[in-house]
Amino acid sequence: MARGNQRDLARAKNMKKQKEMAKANKKDGDPKKRMESDAEILRQKQAAADARKEAERLEKLKNAKR
């Protein structure tokens, strides 16, 4: 039974370590550059969503004419 407890403690310790590493990775680089890259990604996603919505709207109009 003691081995199971040791395994659980090791898992918990490793999870904590992984979370700390993930936090550290988020803060790398210049904040302004990071904000710009994030904004560009969001612009691309929004443009793709708008294109998809427009295609759906045109498809509905096409089907309505039939």
Question: What would you say this structure looks like, in words?
Answer:
The chain is mainly α and about 70 residues long. Helix content is about 90%, strand content about 0%. It contains two helices and no strands. It has helices at about 1-25, 30-65. The longest helix has about 35 residues, at about 30-65. The chain is elongated. The model has no long low-confidence stretch (mean pLDDT about 90).
Sequence of secondary-structure elements:
HH
Tell me about the largest β-sheet: none
Share in helix: over 70%
Q: How many strands?
A: 0
What form results from the Cα inertia axes?
elongated
Q: Over the alpha carbons, how many angstroms does the gyration radius reach?
A: 24 Å
Query: Helix/strand-derived class?
Result: mainly alpha
Strand content: under 5%
Mean pLDDT: 88
Produce the secondary structure layout.
Layout: H1 2-26, H2 31-65
